[in-house]
Design goal:
Elements (H helix, E strand, L loop, with lengths): L1 E7 L9 E2 L4 H33 L14 H9 L33 H8 L6 E10 L2 E10 L4 E9 L4 E7 L15 E6 L4 E5 L2 E2 L6 E3 L4 H6 L13 E6 L6 E6 L4 E5 L4 E6 L6 E6 L6 E6 L3 E6 L2 E9 L4 E6 L6 E6 L3 E6 L3 E2 L2 E2 L4 E4 L5 E6 L6 E6 L4 E5 L6 E6 L6 E6 L6 E6 L4 E5 L4 H7 L2 H4 L23 H9 L12 H22 L1
Parallel strand pairs: 2-9
Antiparallel strand pairs: 1-3, 3-4, 4-5, 6-7, 7-8, 8-10, 11-12, 12-13, 13-14, 15-16, 16-17, 17-18, 19-20, 20-21, 21-24, 22-23, 25-26, 26-27, 27-28, 29-30, 30-31
Protein name: rRNA-processing protein
Organism: Coemansia linderi
Length: 528
């Protein structure tokens, strides 16, 4: 399953990402993190050991002598001098000259294999990165993919393991953690998961063991005490949405299932403000594109709030017809915003139309899908181009110019239920989509005839272009499957597709037997 995606603009990533190195400072930081985890693990182990002891003391099990169950075989192997696990090692000797060491295969004067490896991981200035939050077999990670636009090539460059199911990704170029004091911008991703913490990873470092910065409480004992209850300093439940303030770059906003919205200072890694205006889970938060202190939030209390973070008591409210799935400021008209709901609708509001804190009715309501609108994005340069994705497995392109929405095209991109859809910040009409079957697709809408005829000028409309196929991740040879691709797609979608050679059903067999009996009877009557 792909639950979130995010683009990284061209030129933002380091040309040659570095490999994670353990320094004294890093060792101390990881040791502190590990100490907390170990302490919690010891407490859980102690509780489990007590339970195991109670089971072993059961009178019904004493005859089995379970305390010595594993002793006999192990001891006999030790007495017989069984082979050592490192028996094939040539020796742990120290060699003064590297040429004498049998384990040093790289000789002076030869090409350094590390240089060849650095060429393989090089990211060019013409490449975009696509960050994919993926979960498979209860294991979650972030795949850092490279998209080579000239050749329409998408592949995984490196990845990070996550502690829980990811819910949101937010890219930022503000340096934090180990590289906070270095000049210039970096390339980081903030990750929201089912854990009540926010992890920020350095995208320019491969094989990272831990995130560069963690926002939230690391004390599991304290978290268990206040699980789900609002707290002023940290989240106590899943973090559902993130928004980085591009105007005040050290601020990151987060919304949570604990009903709060929090404002984080990336310099201190502390929560500087907590808002509790919603009465249920807060599904979405987004900073205004130009007004640095204004933010928009939406929750499962079926309400949307707009307010100035410096004066959080002066809130404007809008009531929806269902739970809020996503919100989006109109970057082409910043006084307006979109709201997508669980009922499959998209509503468009004017933030200026407010009376006594209550927002006016929507300018228009678009019945976009039959199921929840779980993904929504707006084209960064083409005004009026809106894209929605839904659990009904469709992606739809809308023309919303002049407040008269109309559908341009609806497509099933074979990603299952659509959970994420994002326009590329560099390419004009490129969109990445991810969904429930664990596949991501890149769709070049500039070659679609309906999109060209609606949003293109006269020269574009008059020029026929063959539509490009969808671009997906490359698979390694060992990942290729011999199964019928139609059957694989059918399994992912849960559809009942006919195999290449249709097998007769039981009813067909009965009909064939009846036909044979009738033929036999006819032949018998003819012979008579």
């Amino acid at each position: 399953m792909i639950s979130a995606i995010s683009w990284v603009r061209k030129g933002a990533a380091a040309e040659k990402p570095t490999t994670y190195e353990m320094t004294e400072e890093e060792y101390t930081r990881i040791q502190d993190i590990a100490a907390l985890e170990i302490e919690d693990a010891k407490k859980e182990l102690k509780a489990k050991s007590q339970l195991d002891q109670d089971i072993l003391n059961d009178p019904a099990l004493k005859d089995f002598d379970l305390d010595k169950y594993d002793d006999s075989d192990h001891d006999s192997d030790q007495e017989q001098g069984s082979a050592h696990v490192f028996s094939k090692i040539k020796g742990l000797s120290y060699y003064k000259e590297g040429e004498e060491d049998p384990y040093i295969t790289f000789k002076d004067g030869e090409d350094d294999p590390e240089e060849d490896e650095s060429d393989e991981v090089r990211i060019f200035g013409s490449d975009n990165l696509l960050l994919v939050a993926k979960t498979e077999d209860d294991i979650s990670n972030i795949e850092v993919c490279v998209f080579e636009g000239e050749s329409d090539n998408l592949f995984v460059h490196h990845d990070f393991m996550l502690p829980a199911f990811p819910l949101a990704l937010e890219w930022l170029d503000y340096r934090v953690g180990r590289k906070a004091q270095e000049p210039g911008g970096g390339s980081y991703v903030a990750v929201a998961t089912f854990e009540p913490r926010i992890e920020i990873w350095d995208l320019d470092t491969m094989d990272g063991m831990y995130p560069d910065l963690v926002l939230g409480c690391m004390d599991k004992k304290q978290l268990r005490k206040c699980r789900g209850k609002p707290h002023a300093e940290f989240h106590t439940d899943a973090v559902m949405s993130l928004s980085w303030n591009k105007n005040v770059r050290n601020l990151l906003a987060s919304s949570s299932a604990d009903t709060t919205v929090k404002l984080w200072d990336l310099n201190t890694a502390k929560c500087v403000q907590s808002y509790e205006h919603h009465k249920d889970k807060v599904q979405a938060v987004q900073w205004h594109p130009t007004e640095a202190s204004v933010m928009l939030t939406g929750g499962y209390d079926q309400r949307v709030a707009a307010f100035d973070s410096r004066a959080p008591t002066a809130i404007s409210w809008w009531t929806m017809d269902a739970d809020v799935e996503s919100i989006l400021w109109d970057i082409h008209s910043p006084s307006h915003f979109f709201v997508a709901t669980e009922a499959g609708t998209v509503r468009y509001f004017d933030i200026r139309n407010v009376t006594n804190g209550q927002g006016a009715a929507p300018i228009y309501t678009l019945v976009a899908h039959d199921e929840a609108v779980s993904a929504m994005d707006q084209h960064p340069t083409v005004a009026g181009l809106l894209v929605t994705g839904s659990a009904d497995e469709t992606v739809k392109v809308w023309d919303v110019r002049e407040h008269k929405p109309s559908m341009v095209i609806s497509r099933n991109l074979d990603v299952g239920s659509v959970f994420a859809a994002r326009f590329c910040p560099d390419e004009p009409m490129l969109m990445a989509v991810g969904g429930s079957n664990g596949e991501s697709r890149i769709w070049d809408m500039s070659t679609n005839a309906d999109v060209r005829s609606t949003f293109g000028d006269a020269s574009v409309r008059s020029m026929p272009v063959a539509e490009k196929p969808l671009v997906g991740l490359q698979k390694d040879d060992d990942e290729e499957e011999d199964d019928n691709p139609d059957a694989v797609i059918a399994e992912m979608h849960g559809d009942a597709m006919q195999p290449l050679e249709a097998k007769p059903s039981d009813d067909d067999d009965d009909e064939e037997e009846d036909d044979e009996e009738e033929e036999d009877a006819a032949m018998a009557s003819d012979s008579e």
